[in-house]
Design goal:
By secondary structure, the chain is α/β, with parallel strands linked by helices. The termini are far apart. It contains 10 helices and 13 strands. It is globular. The chain is about 35% helix and about 25% strand. The protein has a 5-stranded mixed β-sheet, sandwiched between helices. It has a 5-stranded mixed β-sheet with strand order 7-6-8-5-9. Strands 11-12-13 form a 3-stranded antiparallel β-sheet. It has 3 domains: about 120 residues, D-Maltodextrin-Binding Protein, domain 2 (3-Layer(aba) Sandwich), CATH 3.40.190.10; about 80 residues, 3-Layer(aba) Sandwich (D-Maltodextrin-Binding Protein, domain 2); about 90 residues, Porphobilinogen deaminase, C-terminal domain (Double Stranded RNA Binding Domain).
Length: about 300
């Protein structure tokens, strides 16, 4: 058994929370293991002046950490799973999907009002095209304004800026103890989350069997089933974080229910569907994701996504 492990992580408060959580959970199982953190500044942390949709998103928050992993300078990387591209670099793999936090999105508003009660032409802050599309599909009057930075930075920009409301993931808001700022938690029939939202993806080298065995103790089987289905759907649609695709899988008593949304950026064209099937393995869950992706493509998702890619 290894005596020491180095965890690679971004340096934002939420990323550090995630890395410290991983460290603490591993220490419960392996108290003799010496675990240290290595902080890495990623491209996504540096390029804060442009919207994510303009600079691309393929590994924006992961690839710089992955370079250290490939080089053997760290033993594992802890990511927000929603930031991890569906295709990992050669020689790397997602070894563990940690138990998922609440996957829903939340509204933070200065008036304390929810999405339906915000005033006409309210100014909504979000950097996500997925959220923008779903918001505009139900409230086309909203003014969507870009907001970037880590969670703490976004709250400061929101409080200091001329915004009426802001949309964030519940998981990050809860983990950094901003829950008292939540005005509304949006149900999945209103807002589908990003693929993998609420879960951590722990990445290792494929050939590092010892670290893989250690990290695997943190894997949550239900979360893996759901996230593997969601990621397979996204991969089949050839989407990314900055394509308006939302998905949510739930797994109860051997039955997987997978919901998905694909929409235009302005929300005027939107497709939503679901598949429910009995599955036993992550591989069967991935097949469900591909099946739902094919249904969405047959309903017109291919044209929606093609039009979006032309403008990016």
């Amino acid at each position: 058994m290894k005596k020491e492990i180095i965890i690679g992580t971004r340096s934002s408060p939420l990323a550090l929370w995630q890395a410290e959580f991983t460290k603490a959970e591993l220490s419960k199982h392996f108290p003799e293991l010496n675990i240290t953190l290595k902080l890495v500044k990623t491209t996504g942390d540096v390029l804060l002046d442009s919207p994510l949709s303009k600079i691309g998103d393929m590994g924006l928050f992961t690839k710089d950490i992955e370079k250290h992993l490939i080089a053997g300078e760290i033993d594992l990387a802890v990511h927000s799973l929603k930031d991890v591209p569906t295709g990992t670099p050669e020689g790397l793999m997602i070894t563990s999907f940690t138990e998922r936090e609440d996957t829903r999105d939340v509204i933070i508003s200065k008036s304390g009002k929810g999405i339906k009660d915000l005033p006409q032409n309210a100014r909504m802050a979000t950097s996500s095209l997925r959220r923008m599309s779903q918001l505009l599909s139900m409230r086309p009057d909203l003014q969507i304004l870009d907001i970037r930075g880590n969670l703490n930075t976004r709250f400061k920009k929101f409080d200091d800026g001329e915004f009426d409301a802001m949309m964030l993931a519940y998981a990050g808001v809860f983990r950094l103890e901003f829950s008292d700022r939540i005005s509304e938690i949006l149900p999945h029939d209103v807002m589908l989350p990003a693929v993998g939202q609420g879960a951590l993806g722990i990445e290792t080298r494929v050939d590092d069997m010892e670290t893989r065995e250690i990290v695997r103790v943190l894997n949550d089987d239900n979360t893996e089933i759901c996230c593997r289905a969601e990621r397979a759907l996204l991969r089949h649609l050839q989407g990314g974080c900055q394509i308006p695709i939302g998905a949510y899988g739930s797994y109860v008593a051997g039955t997987l229910k997978l919901l998905a949304y694909v929409g235009s950026v302005n929300g005027k064209t939107a497709i939503r569907n679901e598949v429910t099937k009995a599955v036993r393995t992550p591989e069967e869950a991935e097949a469900v994701g591909i099946e739902l992706a094919e249904i969405l493509l047959s309903m017109g998702a291919e044209k929606i996504l093609a039009d979006i890619r032309k403008t990016r």
